Amino acid sequence: MEEDLLVQRLIDDGLIAPPAPLVAMLSGGRDSVCMLDLAVRVRGGEAVRALHVNYGLRDAAGEDERCCAELCERLGVELEVERPRRPEGPGNLQSWARDARYAAAAQLAEADGATIVTGHTADDQVETILYRLASSPSRRALLGMRARDGRLARPLLGTTREETTEYCRRHGLPWCDDASNQEPAFARNRVRHGLIPELARIHPAAAENVLRTAALLRDEAEVLDSLVEAELGRSAGRRRTISQERFAELHPALRRLVLQRLADAAAGRPVPGAARFAEQVAGLRRTGRSMLDLGGGVRAVAERGVLRAERP
């Protein structure tokens, strides 16, 4: 049966394998409900803890929390509820909400070395790639989300939203539909309800082709990453550096990747757009000390013929 295939898929990929306990991010939507039920089937309720974040921004927020509590009681899973307060002033609402829920999940997971699991599906992957492609001029945009990203696991990236919906229906699992997912004010919703259907009209396998392309690029990215590591592996000590002479000799594409890696390592997170300064960094003088801002609170520093990135 289909549900058995999903269970076996989670067992085979090993993303939620023992011994680490699990923190399942539970919005109440069909994908996260399916993920929670699968996690319980694979690992047992005692190894799983659910996290629901109630932002209090919608009239139905209380109902969503109640549905999550009832589901967790039914599955025998402990539920943690966070109710963050939105900061005063302007800002990106979706970015704040995302940061708040991942911070809450990280805090829970840190306490007992747990793996954080989300309900991101293949449909979410397509939406993410298309959105990033339009909004972020970088190679990273085309790679999509990783199935494993540090402590974070996305076991359903090979599963469609149609499959998670059918799974929930077959098992009688209730879910809550977030009305804000229909609002055209949010760019991701316009990608989901506008762009992707249009691409399907151009070619019925458009979404599958996006996923196949991303998978190929991720394979090729492993080769590129090994080349970057080979260059930075020459670094002495823990700080990532490269000689200015060697940096200037690199192929322009590899030069961009090396600079991006230096910036990301210095910041401890991705620094969007740092690679675009590669040619300027290659031109920094090789005597004395010179610097160039790479954005994201990171700068390139050339000193005594050695290039590094740092946060001021």
Topology:
Elements: H1 2-13, E1 22-25, H2 30-43, E2 48-53, H3 61-75, E3 78-82, H4 93-112, E4 115-117, H5 122-135, H6 140-143, E5 148-149, E6 152-153, H7 161-170, H8 187-202, H9 206-232, E7 241-243, H10 244-249, H11 252-267, H12 278-282, E8 289-295, E9 298-303, E10 306-310
Parallel strand pairs: 1-2, 1-4, 2-3, 4-6
Antiparallel strand pairs: 5-6, 7-10, 8-9, 9-10
Helix pairs in contact: 1-2, 2-7, 5-8, 5-9, 9-11
Describe the model.
This protein has 312 residues and is an alpha/beta fold. It has 2 domains: 2-202, HUPs (Rossmann fold, 3-Layer(aba) Sandwich); 233-310, 2-Layer Sandwich (Uridine Diphospho-n-acetylenolpyruvylglucosamine Reductase, domain 3). The protein is 51% helix and 14% strand. It has helices spanning 2-13, 30-43, 61-75, 93-112, 122-135, 140-143, 161-170, 187-202, 206-232, 244-249, 252-267, 278-282; strands at 22-25, 48-53, 78-82, 115-117, 148-149, 152-153, 241-243, 289-295, 298-303, 306-310. The strands form 2 sheets. It has a 6-stranded mixed beta sheet with strand order 3-2-1-4-6-5, sandwiched between helices. The protein has a 4-stranded antiparallel beta sheet with strand order 7-10-9-8. A hairpin with a 2-residue loop joins strand 9 and strand 10 (306-310). The longest helix is centred in the last third of the chain and has 27 residues, at 206-232. The mean pLDDT is 91.
